[in-house]
Amino acid sequence: MVQPPQLRIPGPTPVPERVQRAMAAPMINHRGPEFRALLPELEAGLRWAFQTENDMLIFPASGTGGLESAVANVVSPGERVLAVTMGAFGDRFADLAEAFGADVARLTLPWGEAADPEDLDALLRHEPDIPTVLVTHNETSTGVTNPLRSLAEVVKRHNRLLVVDGVSSIGSIDLPVDRWGVDVAITASQKGWMLPPGVTMLSVSKAAWQRQASARSPRFYFDWDRAKKMQAKGMTFTTPAVSILFGLREALLTGALGLRLLASSPDVASPTVTAVYFPDALIGEKSEAVFKTWRELGLIVGEGQGKLSGKIFRIGHLGAVYEPDVVATVEALERGLEAQGHLVTRGAALTAARHALSSEPSLVA
Ligand SMILES: Cc1ncc(COP(=O)(O)O)c(C=O)c1O
Questions:
Q1: Residue 353 or residue 282, greater confidence
Q2: Cα–Cα–Cα angle for 276, 281, 284, rounded to 5 degrees
Q3: Pairing, β 132-136 against β 144-145
C-alpha cells in the first residue's frame, strides 16, 4: 500500500483526521443561528490560545491578509514605522507597510540571527516619532525565533504600538499576548492550528483600537471596525470560510481532556512534573476509581499531596521519556477518565500530544 507522504513543511501542516471529519459537516447558513453559536465559541477558544482578553477578529484570508489588515488599520500614509526583519517574512511585512505609503525604517538582521533588544532600544531612543513597531515572532524562512518577550518590553517602555507576525508561532510557541503587551497578534490557519490555509485570526488591544480610529490607510475588506461590529452580531462581514471554522472548533479542542493545570501559567509549568486538576465530577472519592482504572490500564501516576489530595493527579516526565511514552500515557489518561464518566473527544488528547511533541508544550492540557 502506498503511504501518504509525510508533509513536513512549515505549513500547511497535516490536518488530523478528527479535524478533517469536522470540516466535512454539511454547510450551514452563515447568517443563521448555528453560525451565531459557533462564532463566540471560536472567539473564546482563540482568546484562550492567544492568552488574551483582547478582541479577536477572523477573516477569510491567508496570513499575509492578516498582516495587511494590521497595516491598513493602524498605519497612516507618510507615517514612520519600524520593521524588525530577520528574513523573508520580516521583509514582506516591511514591504507591505511601504505599499501602504508608510515611511519604513528597517532594523535588518543577517539571516539566521534574531533581533537584539538593546539594538531596538537604542533605535527607538533615537527615533521618538515611530508610533508602530512590526516584529516577526518566528521567522519561518530562516528557522529563527525572536526573543519577543524582551523585544516587547522595550517597545512598551517606549510606549509604541507593537504588531506581531505570529503566523508560524501562535498556537505552537508560547506567546502570552496580554502579559507581553502585544497590541496586534496575527496568525493563520495552516500553521500550528492543524487546519487548511484560508483563515487569518488576530487579536486587537485597546491601544490598537484607539490607533485604528485615527489611522488613515484605505481599508474595506479588512476594516476591523466593521468586522468587530459584525462579529458582535454573530456573523462576519463577508462569507466566512465555514468549513475551516468547523475545523477550527475541533482543533481548539486540543485542550482536549478539558482539564486545567495547577500551574498558574505555561511560563511557570514545570518541565518535569505536570499537575492536573480532576474534573469537578471526579474530585474526592471518585478520583480513587480513576486511579484504579489507570492502574488497570497499566498507567501509574502520582496522587495529590496534602490539601490537593483527591483533587489533582501528577504526571512525572523526568529522565528517559520518549515519544511512545507520552503517547501511551495520554491514551491511558483519556481512556481512564472516559471510563469514569468524564466526557472526552476520543483521540483528541492523543492528537494534541502528537502535535505538541513536534512543537512547544503549551497546548496539551
Ligand atoms: C512568519 C510568516 N509570516 C507570514 C507568512 C505568510 O502567510 P501566508 O502564506 O499564509 O500568507 C508566513 C507563511 O509561511 C509566515 O511563516
A1: 282
A2: 70
A3: unpaired
CA distance linking residue 362 with residue 173, whole number of Å: 7
Nearest atom in ligand 1 to 200's CA: 10
For the chain, percent helix, then strand, then coil, each to nearest 5?
A: 40, 15, 45
- Nearest atom (ligand 1) to Cα of 197: 10
Per-residue pLDDT, averaged over 158-169, amounts to 98
Burial class (CB in 10 A: 0-12, 13-18, 19+), 182: buried
Give the span between the Cα atoms of 145 and 167, in whole angstroms.
12
Residue type for position 64: T
Main-chain phi, psi angles of 68, to 5 degrees: -65, -40
* The residue count for the chain: 365
Please give the Cα distance from 142 to 112 (Å, whole number).
6
CB 261 within 8 A of CB 275: yes
Q: What is the pLDDT of residues 77-102, one digit of tens each?
A: 999 999 999 999 999 999 999 999 99
Question: Is the pLDDT confidence value at 65 over 90?
Answer: yes
For residue 103, what are the β-bridge partners? 80
CATH classification (class only), 266-363: alpha beta
CA distance 310 to 292: 13
pLDDT of amino acid 198: 98
Nearest CA to ligand 1 atom 7: 63
- The CATH number corresponding to 17-252 among 3.40.50.300, 3.40.640.10, 3.30.565.10, 1.10.760.10 equals 3.40.640.10
Give CA–CA dist 227/222, Å, rounded.
Answer: 8
Q: Which residue has the cell 476591523?
A: 224
Q: Which of 186, 176, 182, 171 is nearest to 248 (CA)?
A: 171
Domain positions in the chain: 17-252, 266-363
For residue 350, the CA-to-ligand 1 centroid distance in Å is 27
- Long-range residue pairs from 321-325, CB within 8 A, at least 24 positions apart, any chain: 323/357
Residue 76 alpha carbon to ligand 1 centre in Å: 23
- CA pair distance 118, 26, nearest whole angstrom: 53
